[in-house]
User: Fold Putative peroxidase-related enzyme from Ichthyenterobacterium magnum.
Amino acid sequence: MALVTPLSPDHDIETKELAEFFNETLGFCPNSVLTMQRRPAISKAFINLNKAVMANEGRVTSALKRMIAWVSSNSTGCRYCQAHAIRAAERYGAEQEQLDNIWEYRTHPAFNDAERAALDFSLAASLVPNAVDADIKKRLYDYWDEGEIVEMLGVISLFGYLNRWNDSMGTNIEEGAVESGDQYLGKHGWESGKHDGSQY
Assistant:
């Protein structure tokens, strides 16, 4: 079971209204947000940051942002966020071949060099100790401008927060996210782990 029990979506009306954003991205309000609302200032600040970070400003597409989130979550081992990220990538139009082969983004032809540079940046920035170096910087600047790099690091940093939140909380994973995790990640060993509601 989760460390802290999620509250009803009706607990805080302002959070509920802001959380309508997640009906588009995921199809449901995440249990993580329902837990954060025990301190509504946190849930509201988080949702507003999420909306700002995930806004589509141009070439860093909504689908790519969710794949960046998946790589970051995969590196930290947060199964809850892995499933959420791949579900949102699907809902935002990631190509089927990319969804099916996200584990092999470095070599699979469904990914281009600009996407590989972005996803390698996500991996390097998510490691502890941090592995962003001159080579990562050069590759980023080959394809992306500074505003786009800021967008990417916004996603990586947002998911750094979410990875720690959800793995520490043992947040129970929602049915829709389980379906996406099983479909796209299960063949590589993804399972809900502590997030299935019975192991914490």
Observations:
- The longest helix spans residues 146-169.
- The mean pLDDT is 94.
- The CA atoms of residues 174 and 185 lie 16 Å apart.
